[in-house]
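Below is one record:
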Amino acid sequence: MKNYHSTQKGFTLIEMIVSLAVFSTVITIAVGALLMLIGTNQRLQDEQTVMTNLSFALDSMTREIRTGTNYYCLSDDDIDGGGAGQRIFEDGEDLDFSPTQDCVDGNNDSSPRRYHGMSFVESGQSITEVANTRIAYFVDLTSGIMYRRISGQAAEQITSSGLEVVHAEFFVTGSTRLVDGGAGADKQPTVTIVLEARDRTSESGETYHVQTTVTQRSADL
C-alpha cells in the first residue's frame, strides 16, 4: 500500500492578521476618498445653485438699472420720515419721480439695518408701460430675500426661497443730474451691487459672493 502525504498548507495566524490589516488600510483610504468626493460634489452643487440664482437676479437688475435715470440710494430704514423717495420698501406706496441720492459708502452705517436697496426711474415705458415710473430693488436682511417693486405696487420676490442673502450693499455715485447742478453733477451715474448669499438647505453654511458695477448708458443730462 502506498501512502500519499498532502503538501498543501493553510495560512498562519500572522499572515491572516497582516492580510486583514492591509485590507482594512486600503478600504479606509478608499472610503475616505469616496466621502471626500461626495462632499466636494455637494459643495459644488450648492455653489452652482447659489451662483445661478444670484446671476439671474443681477442680470435682471443690471439690464433695467443701466437704462434708468434719477438713481436714489437708500441711506436709512426710515420708511416714512424721508419723503416718498425713500419709501421704497412699503407695498403700494408711490415713489417720487425726481429725487436722487448717492450712497458712496454703501447702505451701512453704525447701526445694522433691515433693508438695503436703491431705486431709479425707468427710461421710457417698455418695462412698466407707464412713463416716468420708479423701480426699486432691495434686500430684506431679516428674511434674506431680494425684491423688485414698481411704484404703487407690491414687491415681488426675485430670489428663490432656497436662497438666503446674508449681506447686500448698494453703492451709488454721480446720481445728481447735470441739469440740476450741484456737487457731483458732472459725473456719470454708477451703481455697484455687492451680494453675499448661501443655500438654506446646505449643512456647511458656506457663503458665496458676487459683485457687479453698472454705468448709466444714456448721457446724464
Observations:
- The chain has one domain: 38-215.
- Residues 13-66 form the longest helix (54 residues).
- Residues 38-215 form one domain.
